[in-house]
Structure to design on (277 residues):
């Protein structure tokens, strides 16, 4: 399984996507991550293990704490995915373009004249 | 005057502490874009999620309101200002959650034979904007990976 496949498989789970979104803001411990998700710490730890094996996050050792953070190349990959999100937004505007193309012309009226229909 | 239209270009920008600005050019004039942005039967055709809208109502006047609903959530809020076909201000709330409050100013300007839409989304404060971006981030991942779900073998339990 390639790293990319593994990343996609890891992110197929909505809780793991939410963890990634949280870590995008900064590193966090298991305790930090468990509280907003109302999931047990062992369950969070299992999700973190999947994300770490997929190469998306890494563990920092800070005394007795083990905060997790995004790996920097994973952040770059996420930016690519955000580019896809932007493309999805653009797709919505392209649907709007298609709706505009489908509207009949209203002869003899320019856009800045009175609107063709009054709702008040 | 030579004005170029670039419909393929969507511009996103953060402005100040509270605003997100979206700018997009269309090849059709403001009157036509205005109809597609404000008439429910047209809104239904382009404003889609993974599911079709179950309710779409717009009472287009200052003091009016709108309600867009999908099977699991809705957006609604008051309409504050209407100056067809160039200017509208409305407030958007998500599923009745009063803490999610965005004031959206939409301007349509004629540009050559087409138009340029500028939407300014103003959040209550910097934290609210950050939360919205984070929500968009999560939703974006959900959308991308939701579409890939059929191709993806489930991870370990």
């Amino acid at each position: 399984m390639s790293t990319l496949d593994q990343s996609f498989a890891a992110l197929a789970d909505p809780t793991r996507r939410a963890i990634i979104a949280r870590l995008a803001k900064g590193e966090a411990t298991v305790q930090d991550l468990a509280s907003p998700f109302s999931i047990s710490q062992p369950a969070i730890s299992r999700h973190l293990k999947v994300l770490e094996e997929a190469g998306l996050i890494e563990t920092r050792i800070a005394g007795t704490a083990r905060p997790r953070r995004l790996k920097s190349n994973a952040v770059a990959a996420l930016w690519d995915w955000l580019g896809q999100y932007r493309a999805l937004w653009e797709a919505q505007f392209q649907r709007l373009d298609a709706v505009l193309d489908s509207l009949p012309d209203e002869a003899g009226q320019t856009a800045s004249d009175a609107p063709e229909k009054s709702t008040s | 005057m030579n004005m170029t239209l670039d419909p393929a270009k969507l511009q996103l920008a953060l402005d100040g502490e509270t605003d997100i600005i979206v700018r997009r050019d269309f090849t059709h004039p403001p009157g036509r874009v205005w109809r597609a942005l404000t008439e429910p039967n047209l809104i239904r055709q382009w404003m889609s999620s993974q599911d079709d809208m179950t309710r779409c109502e717009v009472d287009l006047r200052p003091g009016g309101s709108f309600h867009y609903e999908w099977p699991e959530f809705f957006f609604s809020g008051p309409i504050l200002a209407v100056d067809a076909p160039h200017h509208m201000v409305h407030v958007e709330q998500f599923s009745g959650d009063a803490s999610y409050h965005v004031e959206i100013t939409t301007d349509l300007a004629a540009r050559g034979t087409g138009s340029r839409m500028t939407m300014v989304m103003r959040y209550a404060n910097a934290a609210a904007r950050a939360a919205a971006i984070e929500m968009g981030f999560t939703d974006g991942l959900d959308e991308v990976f939701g579409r890939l779900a059929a191709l993806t073998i489930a991870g370990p339990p």
User: Anything to note?
Assistant: The first helix of chain B runs from residue 30 to 38. The two ends of chain B are 62 Å apart (CA to CA). Chain B touches chain A through 46 residues (CB under 8 Å). Strands of chain B lie at 10-15, 19-26, 55-58, 65-70, 73-83, 87-94, 97-111, 114-123.
